[in-house]
Amino acid sequence: MATDWRPSAEIATLRERARLIGEVRAFFAERGVWEVETPVLGHGGSTDVHLASLSCVATTPAGRERLWLQTSPEFHMKRLLAAGSGPIFQLARSFRDGEVGARHNLEFTMLEWYRPGFGLNALIEETTQLIRRVLPDDPGPVRLRRYRELFRHRLGIDPFTESLGGLRRLAEAQGGLSMDEAARDECLDLLMSLAIEPDLGHEGLDVVVDYPADQAALARRHRDPEDGQWVASRFEVYCRGLELANGYDELTDAEEQRARFEADKAARRSAGLPEVDSDARLVAALASGMPEGSGVALGLDRLIQLALGKTSVAEVMAFSTPQA
Amino acid sequence: MANYSTNEFKGGLKVMLDGDPCAILENDYVKPGKGQAFNRVKLRNLMTGRVWERTFKSGESLEGADVLELDMEYLYTDGEMWYFMLNDGSFEQYPVEKKALGDTEKWLKEQVVYTVTLWNDNVINVTPPNFIELEVTETDPGLKGDTAQGGSKPATLSSGAVVRVPLFINEGEVLKVDTRTGEYVSRA
């Protein structure tokens, strides 16, 4: 059989992709957000228990060292912010092991940008403007959807107060799998993925806010005005059932950051996951003072997929991993 | 049998689920923005033919199923069992129960080669070839001149299957039939 050497995207699609990337660059140029390039290989990897970092061993000025392929440009960009960069954006090649499917590829392009001085609402506004700029037709109005309200409306439960047993039973019914030993977050993730996400973004751009505090990652937390429950200060944007962007009111407290790295590492150990070196330089940068502000990461391949009416990210990439 | 993890689930892989052997049809990776990843998997239960949709945590694994698909020639039936023979020259025969035969019973013809699915050495399914040639044993007399109008009538074939055929087909003719749809294709 002949070796299949052809690209996974059509050449006409790749030309359109190039044009849309030009639009993205123009969008930021108009706003005074400048483009940076940060390393793909770093001394720290992502400690997030739900991300699998790839690593390699390379010869550097320090000798033979393990370096981590970045799962997003976040750590390096935050160090630029701490060094006084002001607003910056990047089109960063990012790597996540095991993420394979119609909406995922092992390596992909993350559009990530940071806005010192912006609150979450200002960044939501800018993110949805960028999405509108790239999509050829109007995706509809922007709607803020509280995580808690989505669960109440779609599943009839309060995700913050429902008992663990109740969450497990509901997750089992939705997924047809045993959730006997599942933690709260696992149940919530399953319900979000199967029951809620597919319905989002069909009548407009749905922006989900006020996530459970345990799902804060590198975002700050604040209290839900409803009853004082801690919630994560982050948002996700959905368009036509697809998650496009993930934004944070960025954590700037070095001690809190160090504690979250340590908590991640402990969680990785108890789950039997491989150890990852955390980024000590990020903690040092925060300690020296990173300006308060918000940042967002957007899956550029997915946005281009939507803009060009394709059904998988592979169709808008020159060579998806199976063809690479 | 080996265990297979969700990232090894590919179309055609045979695994055990709820005590039944299943074939994986589709495997879709889903992951909320930040959080646990899952695989939504479609499987065909090889015992019942039913399609199941199940969700697994990414990284979970299932035991492989000892399932073999072999080419066998249909020999005969004694009314209780149907006998097939491996066509690899070994002449080894396998008896098949009516339950495992299912709908394939109406497409049986001696000396034709079928795909026989074995699980732990027992036959659980028999699949006919996509196209098969069978003789018409019963149909209303042919009507001349109606070929252009595309009318059809039922015809009973030597295997017992009843298919819709064009009006010009007569008893004794051999037809090519698509066993997947049960539709007439052409005169053989």
UniProtKB/TrEMBL annotation, chain A:
<dbReference type="InterPro" id="IPR004525">
    <property type="entry name" value="EpmA"/>
</dbReference>
<keyword id="KW-0067">ATP-binding</keyword>
<dbReference type="InterPro" id="IPR004364">
    <property type="entry name" value="Aa-tRNA-synt_II"/>
</dbReference>
<dbReference type="InterPro" id="IPR045864">
    <property type="entry name" value="aa-tRNA-synth_II/BPL/LPL"/>
</dbReference>
<comment type="subunit">
    <text>Homodimer.</text>
</comment>
<feature type="domain" description="Aminoacyl-transfer RNA synthetases class-II family profile">
    <location>
        <begin position="17"/>
        <end position="322"/>
    </location>
</feature>
<dbReference type="GO" id="GO:0005829">
    <property type="term" value="C:cytosol"/>
</dbReference>
<keyword id="KW-0547">Nucleotide-binding</keyword>
<dbReference type="GO" id="GO:0006430">
    <property type="term" value="P:lysyl-tRNA aminoacylation"/>
</dbReference>
<dbReference type="InterPro" id="IPR018149">
    <property type="entry name" value="Lys-tRNA-synth_II_C"/>
</dbReference>
<keyword id="KW-0436">Ligase</keyword>
<dbReference type="Pfam" id="PF00152">
    <property type="entry name" value="tRNA-synt_2"/>
</dbReference>
<dbReference type="InterPro" id="IPR006195">
    <property type="entry name" value="aa-tRNA-synth_II"/>
</dbReference>
<dbReference type="GO" id="GO:0004824">
    <property type="term" value="F:lysine-tRNA ligase activity"/>
</dbReference>
<protein>
    <submittedName>
        <fullName>EF-P lysine aminoacylase GenX</fullName>
    </submittedName>
</protein>
<dbReference type="GO" id="GO:0005524">
    <property type="term" value="F:ATP binding"/>
</dbReference>
<dbReference type="GO" id="GO:0000049">
    <property type="term" value="F:tRNA binding"/>
</dbReference>
From TrEMBL, chain B:
<keyword id="KW-0379">Hydroxylation</keyword>
<dbReference type="Pfam" id="PF01132">
    <property type="entry name" value="EFP"/>
</dbReference>
<keyword id="KW-0963">Cytoplasm</keyword>
<dbReference type="InterPro" id="IPR001059">
    <property type="entry name" value="Transl_elong_P/YeiP_cen"/>
</dbReference>
<dbReference type="InterPro" id="IPR020599">
    <property type="entry name" value="Transl_elong_fac_P/YeiP"/>
</dbReference>
<dbReference type="InterPro" id="IPR014722">
    <property type="entry name" value="Rib_uL2_dom2"/>
</dbReference>
<comment type="pathway">
    <text>Protein biosynthesis; polypeptide chain elongation.</text>
</comment>
<dbReference type="GO" id="GO:0005829">
    <property type="term" value="C:cytosol"/>
</dbReference>
<dbReference type="GO" id="GO:0003746">
    <property type="term" value="F:translation elongation factor activity"/>
</dbReference>
<keyword id="KW-0251">Elongation factor</keyword>
<dbReference type="InterPro" id="IPR012340">
    <property type="entry name" value="NA-bd_OB-fold"/>
</dbReference>
<dbReference type="Pfam" id="PF09285">
    <property type="entry name" value="Elong-fact-P_C"/>
</dbReference>
<dbReference type="InterPro" id="IPR013185">
    <property type="entry name" value="Transl_elong_KOW-like"/>
</dbReference>
<dbReference type="InterPro" id="IPR011768">
    <property type="entry name" value="Transl_elongation_fac_P"/>
</dbReference>
<dbReference type="InterPro" id="IPR008991">
    <property type="entry name" value="Translation_prot_SH3-like_sf"/>
</dbReference>
<comment type="similarity">
    <text>Belongs to the elongation factor P family.</text>
</comment>
<feature type="modified residue" description="N6-(3,6-diaminohexanoyl)-5-hydroxylysine">
    <location>
        <position position="34"/>
    </location>
</feature>
<keyword id="KW-0648">Protein biosynthesis</keyword>
<dbReference type="InterPro" id="IPR015365">
    <property type="entry name" value="Elong-fact-P_C"/>
</dbReference>
<dbReference type="InterPro" id="IPR013852">
    <property type="entry name" value="Transl_elong_P/YeiP_CS"/>
</dbReference>
<comment type="function">
    <text>Involved in peptide bond synthesis. Alleviates ribosome stalling that occurs when 3 or more consecutive Pro residues or the sequence PPG is present in a protein, possibly by augmenting the peptidyl transferase activity of the ribosome. Modification of Lys-34 is required for alleviation.</text>
</comment>
<feature type="domain" description="Elongation factor P C-terminal">
    <location>
        <begin position="132"/>
        <end position="187"/>
    </location>
</feature>
